[in-house]
Amino acid sequence: MLMDVDEIKTLTDVVDHITADFAEQFGGIAHATPFIKHQMNLANLDFNNPNKKTINAFIERLAIIESGYKTEDIVFENKKNRLALFKEMTD
User: Fold this and answer.
1) Exposed, middle or buried, 9 (CB in 10 Å: 0-12/13-18/19+)?
2) pTM of the predicted model, to two decimals?
3) pLDDT tens-place string over residues 43-76
4) What is the pLDDT of residues 13-33, one digit of tens each?
5) In whole angstroms, what is the distance from residue 5 CA to residue 90 CA?
6) Whose CA is closest to 67, among 56, 58, 79, 57?
7) Taking Cα atoms as reference points, which of 46, 2, 4, 7 lies closest to residue 25?
8) What are the DSSP calls for the chain, one per residue?
9) 78: domain range?
């Protein structure tokens, strides 16, 4: 379940929200978990200690995955929303 945006206080919360959003659109957490873990590894993202560079790479990698089964417009919108959430935390 997606976290209420007002409850997002840390970069870990951002990653949690992005992960939940991706999983919800990918058929549920059980189905999405292997893909999420693989993309986190490729982005060098440590869930417990995320940083700007690795979160951005993770968002980019999720967009690549989504481009295989979603329209370009939906992929763009998802990426834009995830980046906006991330940007709010880093401003």
Assistant:
1) exposed
2) 0.91
3) 999 999 999 999 999 999 999 999 999 999 999 9
4) 999 999 999 999 999 999 999
5) 14
6) 79
7) 2
8) -PPPGGG--SHHHHHHHHHHHHHHHTT-HHHHHHHHHHHHHHTT--TTS--HHHHHHHHHHHHHHHTTTS-HHHHHHHHHHHHHHHHHHH-
9) 5-90
